[in-house]
User: Which sequence fits this backbone?
């Protein structure tokens, strides 16, 4: 597995309850752009179409490849996610019941060089939870630094 990009902001702003791997439908030279890592996961989210049981990722920005074909593709278009129908139904049920959100957390190439997107069922953190995360991270960094100095 080769990690292309990780949405660090999502790990800070949300509590992650469950992660799901999904394929993504790409057009034209988007795969080349992803391999060059000219994309952004910030402010992207996934939505589910209730009528057709299809999942889409919204606001995923993939820049167009300047050396690609002459057709220009909208960089922020909705892209369909490849999930089984029963997976989509289960996700839809959890989103409606518990008030969770689907957010893309990572985009990577799997062992067969296929682009995969890791989605996470998330619940938003409150301000004091974010402060607690910062305190814990600073404490761990300081203790690691102290351990390095002692050895």
Assistant:
């Amino acid at each position: 597995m080769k990690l292309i990009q990780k949405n660090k902001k999502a790990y800070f702003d949300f509590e992650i309850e469950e992660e799901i791997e999904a394929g993504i439908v790409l057009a034209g030279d988007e795969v080349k752009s992803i391999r060059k890592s000219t994309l952004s996961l910030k402010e992207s989210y996934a939505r589910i179409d209730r009528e057709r049981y299809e999942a889409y990722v919204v606001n995923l920005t993939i820049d167009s490849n300047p050396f690609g074909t002459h057709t220009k593709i909208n960089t922020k278009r909705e892209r369909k996610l490849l999930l089984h129908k029963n997976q989509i139904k289960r996700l839809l049920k959890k989103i409606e019941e518990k008030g969770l959100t689907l957010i893309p957390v990572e985009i990577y190439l799997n062992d067969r060089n296929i682009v995969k997107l890791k989605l996470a069922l998330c619940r938003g953190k409150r301000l004091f939870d974010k402060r607690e995360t910062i305190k814990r991270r600073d404490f761990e960094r300081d203790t690691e630094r102290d351990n390095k100095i002692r050895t």
